[in-house]
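Would you kindly consider the sequence and fold I have copied below?
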Amino acid sequence: MAPVTAGKKKHTKSIHEPRPLKRKREDEDLDSLNQRVQDINVKEIEYETFASLPLSQPTADGLHASHFKTLTDIQKKAIPLTLKGTDILGAAKTGSGKTLAFLIPVLENLYRRRWTELDGLGALILSPTRELAIQIFEVLRKIGRYHTFSAGLVIGGKSLQEERERLGRMNILVCTPGRMLQHMDQTAAFETDTLQMLVLDEADRIMDMGFQSTVDAIVEHLPKERQTLLFSATQTKKVSDLARLSLRDPEYVSVHEAASSATPSTLQQNYIVTPLPDKLDTLWSFLRSNLKSKILVFMSSGKQVRFVYEAFRHMQPGIPLLHLHGRQKQTARLDITTKFSVTKNSCLFATDVVARGLDFPAVDWVIQLDCPEDAETYIHRVGRTARYERNGRAVLFLDPSEEEGMLKRLQEKKVTVEKINVRQKKQQSIKNQLQNMCFKDPELKYLGQKAFVSYVRSVHVQKDKDVFKLNELPLEEFSASLGLPGAPKIKFLKGDNAKSLKNAPRQALQALSSSEGEDSNREAKAKKNNTKTKYDRMFERRNQDVFADHYAKLVEDEKDDRIDDTGDLDEENGFLSVKRRLSDVSIISGEDNNDLGPKISDDKRDGQNLTKATLAIDSKRKAKLVNSKKALLKLKPKGKKLVFDESGNPQEIYELESESQFQAHGPADSQKAKFLAAEQERLQNADVADKQAAKAKRKEKREKRNAAVRGEPDGEARVVLIPTHEGGDEEDAFGEGGASADELESAREIEREHEREREREREPAKMKRRKKWFEDGPGDETASKRRAQDMMQEPETAEELEAMAAGLLG
């Protein structure tokens, strides 16, 4: 809630006036203003401008600063009566200036009563929606900028505690009914005993069933002696409603009773007859043809708004998209209304939350995708365009079942609409794209299901059954147009007696079925057999080429299963009916045959060479067993565990023999002993081979190390070894010519070096301690002893003292 404290406009005459003289002059101006208000003659004088009305100087300055000069029709008739304190029922076309017709009297009446902040609440303005309340508050701030009143905005979505702190200081409150009643019940410092004026904008909406109990509770808190103003484009005239508000001799002010229509003359109104499944196609085609326009699209529920917005946003029609509904937070709703007001080319999907009173500048088109609940709602919707004598166009989408009834209701309200047709050349279909998106995006599919249910519910709850005929709507086709695989189940519809049938006794069901006759039973059975599941409906989709990869593979696999032995595709039952083939069936026991189908003849039980067989499924029990994975495992051939040899050929890891083949090899004990002996011999041979390989590896390592010691490259290493065999000399061991003495000495030296390295490796490593700075090395023992002896001798002369110091310093 933001208070408004208008700044005082100080006139040059009264700057240096003494306070008593200034107060006397203000009293004289106020008396003169009251006298001019009392002299108003509504029947004889017709006011054309705001300057001709008896208004206070702060109000006149605020109107001039806001560029309001000329009075509209509703303002000419309503403002003079309200200034004199008369209760008003004001009805005027949308965009005719009803807001100023009640804001100016509010400011003037409080000004003439010298209302201050200490006097408390003086005027209460009720609005059905938050957006309209915000708009009224902004207009009040503009024209009341030079007054000293404090004004507040009380709507939902804001901090209740902050509003409580300021509520007691407010003179004018603009609020929604629910939030106002909450403060009346919970805020102790809020008092309404001093209220002077009560204003209901869009009174017919506030007085309907949605706000009836809330408004009754608010009126009970208000004083009986007050001035009440009711304004709307379609005003209520019920005596009961007026009695509830305690109106005193109200004046009915209307400016379109004698007019040919309740809508502006600058508004071009048309309607098109489009079946329910084609509505989104038509809307998409319309948006693609009007990318440089400002469009407002009305729908019946917030879930529809969200689904259409998300779907169209993914498909990118080429125009900025916005969406607004009552489930959004207040900050988001305010941002969206602001964006749509300032943009030139955009499309806003909205519910009836923006249908009343909101002033969006320069709206080119108003599209009513869903039929309005009554003619009054239609008038308010189309009133968002063609405001203040500007041009505008409105299009109403009607299902063939809604055409006759809705046109009749509009004619009763003097609203004439012309029928137009859609150009088929520009008509585009988006059903396939919606199906693809809903299949790939589960969240969008969920939104589509909620949108379908909310639309059906909105039609179901309508009172006018001559217009809304739910039984005549093609709901199955409508769900397909949203991209859904099937129509979601509607639990609130009458005739959905699945639960009652489930809980009914069997005897009662049998008696009921027998009384209906054989013909009805046959029809019911045929209908039941033709019932399609949601997966069947998925296979009916025409755009199979846009499926996801995993689903396309699934389709190909199913298609392969439907190819029979001759290689022809079974087209008799279409793509939906997929025959179940049980191929490569192994030997089946008699018990399995009894459960899963007829027994297979003995001539086909040849073991592994059984051909393809199709089991007949003639009962629900067998069909259920065939659908079970556990039951199908009995019919499928068992897998084999294979290993691959060095050549890459597969072979079974376990090869089982029959009993006769096993007995042919001898007794079991002898076969066991023979097997153990063979395995032991195999292990010994493997052990010998492993030792030879280890010896060769060590020899190769030693040769590389000898070559490294001599500094020779690996490829040119010369092996020189000392012979160790007996009975031969060294020269014979090196070949035919022997070796020289130098070579022998070098070999012995290498061998001794290797022996020392092996000894060092066998000794444990000794930890080396780091030498301190004051310790001497192992070679400096004599020097350290000498320095110690020198230090033991006492110096006798100065030269000796210097020598000792030099020795200590190193």
